[in-house]
Design a protein that fits this description.
By secondary structure, this protein is mainly β. The protein is built from no helices and eight strands. It has a six-stranded antiparallel beta sheet with strand order 6-7-1-2-5-8, with no helix packed on it. A two-stranded antiparallel sheet has the order 3-4. A hairpin with a 2-residue loop joins β6 and β7. The chain starts with 8 loop residues before the first strand and ends with a strand.
Amino acid sequence: MTIKPLQDRVVLKMTEAEETTKSGIILTGSAKEKPEVAEVIAVGEGKYDQNGKLVPVSVKVGDKVLMSKYSGTNVKLDGEEFVIVKNDDILAVVE
């Protein structure tokens, strides 16, 4: 089963939280922060503006992105977890 987002929505798969700090300290489950970097899995076609012109989504499948910390809707499909966000909730592309 696949997810096909509508309009300007983007399906993201979150990256794993860091297990250790840069200095080598191992983090427990409660000390790990929610990751904000995700990989784009699927994108919608875009959204129509007030003039009827299609505005495409600004990212493509495979991009690594930073997203707003508490945005999106969590979805579980076939044992995998995804987050569906609007294009506006994506802050930057990580290169």
